[in-house]
Specification:
Elements: H1 2-17, E1 30-32, H2 39-44, H3 51-57, E2 71-73, E3 85-87, H4 94-100, H5 106-112, E4 126-128, E5 139-141, H6 148-154, H7 160-166, E6 180-182
Antiparallel strand pairs: 1-2, 3-4, 5-6
Length: 184
């Protein structure tokens, strides 16, 4: 009980000066973990968000081992996510990725990502989640873990040979993160 005596003033002081708080808004779906954050304190910053929901939206998260600087999802954005690719985060599985994207099934993910290895998803790599064939992308931005093969697999109808033809002089062992690679 003695801890409670000191906890309330410390929390009030922290809230007054903004220590350990995140920049939150109703539209923000991700929050960056800061020193002193807990799943409970993060859930308290959002209306109708529970710690259990944080566990559901962030597969593999460990309450006792929150990494400062990492991001976690703080709202069920299933209806709001309208993207062509999903960036793999720690704890992501094909199942959890499919659940985040309305209308996307595991079968869709396998169809959209030929050759994907579900037991070897690389953090920072991208998984195609859009079935919209009208979205024609001319360039692909290199992310950590990208290889020419993984990039070709993300783009329907693009082969490794196409990537070499479209990007003369490309060095497959020296892909620069953030640079763009022509895919069409």
């Amino acid at each position: 009980m003695k801890k409670t005596k000191y906890l309330a003033p410390v929390l009030a002081l922290g809230m007054t000066f903004g220590f350990g708080t995140n920049d939150v808004s109703a539209e923000k779906a991700m929050v960056t973990i800061e020193k002193g954050d807990t799943l409970w304190s993060i859930a308290q910053q959002y209306e109708e968000v529970t710690v259990q929901e944080l566990y559901e939206w962030n597969p593999g998260i460990e309450a006792d081992n929150l990494q400062i600087g990492s991001e976690i999802m703080v709202s069920d954005t299933k209806e709001n996510i309208d993207e062509e690719f999903h960036t793999v985060r720690p704890g992501s599985t094909l199942y959890s990725i499919a659940k985040l994207h309305a209308g996307v099934t595991l079968e869709d993910l396998y169809d959209l990502n030929p050759g994907i290895q579900p037991r070897n998803l690389q953090i920072g790599s991208e998984v195609r989640v859009s079935k919209d064939d009208n979205l024609k992308e001319m360039y692909h931005t290199i992310t950590p873990g990208s290889t020419l093969i993984s990039i070709a697999n993300l783009h329907a109808g693009v082969t490794l040979e196409d990537l070499y033809d479209l990007n003369p002089g490309i060095e497959p062992r020296n892909l620069q993160i953030g640079s763009e690679l022509r895919v069409q």
